[in-house]
Amino acid sequence: MEKFKRFEVSQKVIWGSSVSLAILASIPKLFDAVSTLRDIVINSSITLLFSIFIWHYNIYSLPKFSSQRVGKNLFNGKLFLSVIAGIAIMVVLVVAHQELFQAAQMDAPIMFELRGILINLIVYMFLHLLFQNYQTQQMGVELERTKAVNLGAQYELLKQQVNPHFLFNSLNTLKSMVDVNDPQSSDFILKLSDFYRFTLESRKMDLIPLREEIQILDSYVYLLKARFEDGFELIYEISENQYNTVIPPFTLQLLIENCIKHNIVSLDKPLIINLYSENEFLVIENQIQLKRGVLSTGVGLDNINQRFMHLIHKEIGIDKDETTFKVKIPLIYDDHNN
């Protein structure tokens, strides 16, 4: 994930504007007959040093590295503090120049203060506009990045929902059942039809009730049981009140598919998966009996995690030890219709 870039103001802008202000401040002195070059340089240097200080003060008064948001109101406490700090530093600069150079033709202190306040306001407002523009650009980049992640997750989900390998295996199972005149063939066809009907109906939804997700899972598990027989078992232990929560569609199916993909499923070594609620999570747990030669890319779990981050800004939990593998998905309490 790309982080926000640090907000920066070019040193060319800071020094260029400061020098320009110093030159503008010295113009009236050029038409003053009693002013010397030394007086002009001293007055200009005060403006130059003050402008550079005000630039950096206002820059560092912004949230550090722009990692936080600032208020949209232009006139706020930060401006007041900037003006007070500007008045104080201008007094210091004027007194220091008077003491060091004993300049006779310097402007009155009040003129320097008024000039300082004007410079402060110009720099503050210009910097504020730059920063607001920067934040708008960063939010646009983040929005596009979020859209790209979400579209990628939806595309990956769609590919897994209509997994050609699953369809191929299901049709092979159906063929075997028909060949032996299995009386369950009709039920198998209905469940396969239900599963893909659910796929088409739910693929555009962000969330569906957990009760409906379980119905989709029931059809999926029926198809798996027809294929693996007693080599596969799914045990439910979900609290009744949690059936009214919502969940991204096909989350459970993808997690079951992930278990089957990486673990041995056979009559000699059956794969038992437990699905149960634990506090504010739904847990999918299986014993580890890894297949040889199957490498985990983490794409399936990452896809599910991205969907939860996009929808509720929460991550799924993964607990693993030597014998068991658990995935914890947050329960979502939501009353809106999908």
Task: Tell me the helix content.
Answer: 55-70%
CATH class of the largest domain: Alpha Beta
Question: What sort of overall outline do the alpha carbons produce when their principal axes are compared?
Answer: rod-shaped
Second CATH tier, the architecture of the largest domain: 2-Layer Sandwich
The number of helices is 9
Mean pLDDT: 78
Strand order of the largest sheet: 2-4-5-7-6
Description:
InterPro entries: Bact_2-comp_sensor_kinase, Sig_transdc_His_kin_internal. The protein is rod-shaped, with a radius of gyration of 34 Å. Strands 2-4-5-7-6 form a 5-stranded mixed beta sheet, with helices on one face. The longest helix has 53 residues. A hairpin with a 3-residue loop joins strand 6 and strand 7. The protein starts with 10 loop residues before the first helix and ends in an 8-residue tail after the last strand. By secondary structure, it is of the alpha+beta class. The chain is built from 9 helices and 7 strands; from the N terminus they run H-H-H-H-H-H-E-H-E-E-H-E-E-H-E-E.
